[in-house]
Amino acid sequence: MSLEVRDLTVYYQTLRGDVRALESASFKIDGGEIMGLAGESGCGKTTLGHSLIYLAPPMKHIRGRVTLNGDELPIADIDAMNQHRYRDISIIPQYAMNAMNPVRKIGKMTEDLLRSKGIDFHEIWPALQRRLDLVRLRQDVLDLYPIELSGGMKQRMVMVLSTLLNPFLLIADEITSALDVASQKAVAQMLVQFREQDCCKSAMVITHDISILYQIADSIMIMYAGQIAERAATDTIIHAPRHPYTKLLISTLPEIGAQYATAKLHGIPGKPPLLLDPPSGCRFRDRCPVAFEKCTETPPLIEVAPGHSVACWREAAHA
Amino acid sequence: MATLVLAVTIDWVIPRFMPGNPIQILISRANLKAEAARLIYGHYMQAFGLDLPIWRQYLNFWNAIFHGDLGISVWLFPRPVLQIILDAAPFTLGLLLPAILASWFAGNWFGAFAARSKRLDNTLLPISYVLTSTPYMWLGILLAWLFGIVLHIFPFSGAYDFGMMIHWSWAFAWSVLQHWFLPFISLFLVMFGGWAIGMRNMIIYELESDYSHYLQALGAPRSLIRRYAFRNALLPQITGLALQLGVIVAGQLVTEMVFAYPGVGYLILQAIQNHDLFLLQGCFLFIVIGVLIANFLIDVAYVLVDPRTRTGMQGAG
Amino acid sequence: MFKNRSEFLYFAWQNPKLRVGLAIVLLMVVLALAGPLLTRWTPREYVAPGPLPPSSEYWFGTTSFGEDVYTQFVHGLRATFIVGILGGGLGTLLGVVIGFTAGYRGGTVDEILNMFTNIVLVVPSLVVLIIVVAYLDVRGFLFESLFIGCFAWPWAARAIRAQTFSLRTREFVDLARLSGMRPAGIIATEIAPNMLSYLLLVFILQFGGAVLTAAALDFIGLGPTNSVSLGLMMNHAVIYGALLLGMWWWFIPPGLAITAIVGALYVTNVGLDEVFNPKLRET
Fold it and tell me: Inter-chain contact B219–A117, Cβ cutoff 8 Å?
């Protein structure tokens, strides 16, 4: 059981031309795996997440295939994809706190949604109740309007809603970004609970906060400027990364307890390239400390060790 | 409330500052001998209370209103103003209310429809813009000319045939309907344009909201998303109705004038032409109070319909 | 917002609504300015024995009294534009002053101004105008524009107030305040540029509204009576039986012109909004 993505390339159509937001993404998520997707803002992680479930204009599918358990997912066809949405792939969006209709009672909205997908509300009802308990929401929340809930409560409600049909893949897009640290921990743990309780088989956790991924992800995929840089088990990424970008990224994470006197915070000098007309080859080469002539060619994502892929000519040589 | 007080005050104040005296004008029309004129002038000044100190007149005015006494008309003397207005009111309301309701519902429905397909949008939108830019009286003139005079389908003056008296009968009802149709359509079309444009924009806005995107991502059918968008877009249209009342009333007045329809608008025109201060005051008061009541009702309706107003902003822990 | 003026012009030119709307308005302006030069009569001059349909001599025909309709029409257009600009301008000015003050100051000032705005907004302005104009009995374009502007401003005030609120809390304003700029300086350098585009939109709508209100007032007979205006033409047409006599050339041009101008203004408004607001542009 797995979701396999091959050479997925998605551009954004704008008045000034195509923005190459996602270039040749290939990876696999196994059943039961929680994969973290991390990178700077604008690196393409949200594009990747959305193209798997709702690829609509201005996004344009250029090439690439996605297969779920061997069956091809028609991601480029908005209408055909409808039968897979919510059932096979689901999403907790970045705007989860505003994702519910403000003038409809939550329970009513749920019922409308389920009914429109041909699902009997009464059959789902016990599962719904269990999920509400799981996220520690009161049963009567279904009688309330979204405006009567706090931000955290709304997010948890959306988490319940999105996983109600036990999808294979749950895409969690920046679900901890708007929360305080304590809530972040709670929500992250809830996600793991979901997997334990079979609310979803696997999850793709999109975030720019690697520390969260350290807590809950089995593997992490690092993206840069629309390209996949590295993918490996969480421990490997954190402690033994091989891509230059990943190495720099990890090294910039401040240690808890570090003070200005003992260690300075440093970042990675430079800025990511604009994706309207990106440089050819590896897009990190302008900031990379170890770039050389071959980097003007796009490095392929090569498996340098079991379960560890890197897109870097330097590392490919040591494969 | 403050609005009411202010409006009434304005209503009372303005004619007081006008040059010229309605009693004088009335007298001069009567062509009396000087001596008699003086006597009658004094009598009427007293009768109309214009010889009292200003503050007394103001208070009397309020007092009179509460007693439903809007004074006596100068032009149609000695009929009381209130009665004249009440005779005309059914015609105004009979034209105004159906036009508002019909155009609001039809306009909103068509506007929502237009937001669905590009082709429909491209036809409906320009038409709506033209309609809403059309001055009410011009459309009235056009319709009166085209359908009344050129094509002889509808009558274009008055509310019923000249020879008839007001009574209950099929013939009378039919006559009223015939006379009612053109002014109604005239009002309806202009307002329709406005609502259609507004609704179309609101629907597009709702379709781009977060909750719409969420439902789309979860694969909900377009019909559900459209249904939610429609209901949510209606809410600001209700408030919009309250805000447009001033404009709508203005349109009503002017349309009545074109069709010589015996409503409050036509009354105002005649009051102006005949320098009838009290009648004008009364009409103004009637309209302002009507608009205020309508505003109040719409506000109540909105609170009933939008759950967000009821629950307030209390977030639960 | 725009890198430079030419980028703005590029997007402006690309927008079909803006092109069409502006074209129509400009056409009317040209007509208003140049039209009277093409005629050798004055609006009230009796040039024909009676009502005549359009011909090569009398392009728009003549009225019941034998006045040239074309002459009246182009002079009326001038009047319309004057009142539109003056009335709309005054309405915008008042709206800006009141709306901006309310939005920038907030608190009690805002509440009082808001209440005042709502009162004027709710009362049907045409009715008040009728009373005021009828009794003060002053005519003339200036007064008409003045009256119209005095009652049209609430719409502008509301819009400006909302925009001020949103701009006031933006980061760049806070930054300016933190760096110790005085309020006048903040207004001039940070807020005003963002408001200018919005002001233009508001003015266009006020212009359109003023034209319609003026037409209504003129039609009732409360506009300037010594000169000619489009609304007055329609008034005369109705009173002197143009309808019954089928003199369509008398009442169709004035109303058509108003519809065209107001409609073009609305469309221009939408187009400009799209140019200023990239999110609205259709790809």
Answer: yes
Residue range(s) defining the domain that contains residue A205 = 2-318
Q: CB distance from B313 to chain A under 8 Å? A: yes
- The span from the first CA to the last CA of chain B, in angstroms, equals 38
User: What 3-state class would DSSP assign to A19?
Assistant: strand
Neighbours of chain B (3+ CB pairs under 8 A): A, C
Inter-chain CB proximity B228 and A150 less than 8 Å: no
| Cis geometry, peptide bond prior to residue A289 (ω within 30 degrees of 0) | no
Give the CATH number of the domain where residue A91 resides. 3.40.50.300
**Burial of B234 (C-beta count, 10 Å sphere; 0-12/13-18/19+):** buried
Contact C255/B268, CB-based, under 8 Å? no
Contact (CB<8Å) C124/B287: yes
First CA to last CA across chain C, in angstroms?
19
CB within 8 Å: B311 and A145: yes
- Chosen for mutation from C274, C279, C283 (greatest number of chain A CBs closer than 10 Å) is C283
Q: Give ipTM to 2 decimals.
A: 0.90
Q: Is the pTM of this model over 0.80?
A: yes
Distances (CA, A) of A319 to A55, A187, A242, B122, C249: 35, 38, 11, 60, 88
What residue spans of chain A are helical by DSSP H? 45-53, 106-116, 121-134, 151-162, 181-196, 210-216, 234-239, 244-252, 313-317
Alpha-carbon gap, residue A282 to A291, rounded angstroms: 9
Kindly tell me the burial class for residue C229, based on how many C-beta atoms sit within 10 Å of its own C-beta (0-12, 13-18, 19 or more): buried
Q: Which two tokens stand for residue C239?
A: 């009173």
- Give the Å distances, CA to CA, from B177 to B155, B160, B174: 10, 8, 5
**B246, C126 in Cβ contact below 8 A?**
yes
Return the number of other C-beta atoms located less than 10 Å from residue B298's C-beta.
Answer: 17
Residues of B in contact with A87 (CB under 8 A): 219
Tally of domains in chain A: 1
Contact present, C124 and B288 (Cβ < 8 Å): yes
Pairing outcome for strands A302-305 and A227-233? unpaired
What are the beta bridge partners of residue A3? Answer: A29, A68
List, for residues A4-49, the tens digit of each pLDDT value. 999 999 999 887 888 999 999 999 999 999 999 998 888 889 999 9
User: Secondary structure of B125-172 in the HEC alphabet?
Assistant: HHHHHHHHHCCHHHHHHHHHHHHHHHCCCCCCCCCCCCCCCCCCCHHH
Hey, what are B59's tokens?
């208070």
Whether A95 sits inside 8 A of B314 (CB atoms) is no
- List of chain A residues whose C-beta atoms are within 8 Å of the C-beta of residue C279: none
Residues in chain C: 283
Q: Which two tokens stand for residue A251?
A: 């090294």
Residues of chain A numbered 8-47 and touching chain C (CB < 8 Å): 13-15
Closest listed residue to residue C268, CA positions, set C210, C213, C203: C203
C128–chain B Cβ distance below 8 A for any pair: yes
What residues of A are in contact with residue B317 (Cβ under 8 Å)? 150
Cβ separation B268–C252 shorter than 8 A: no
| Residues C120-167 pLDDT 10s | 887 788 887 887 776 666 677 888 888 889 889 998 998 888 888 877
Tens of pLDDT, residues C47-78: 888 888 888 888 888 888 888 888 889 999 99
Distance from CA of C283 to the nearest CA of A (A): 6
Integer Rg of chain A from CA: 20
Report the SS3 class of residue A160. helix
Q: Which helix (H) or strand (E) holds A3?
A: strand A2-14
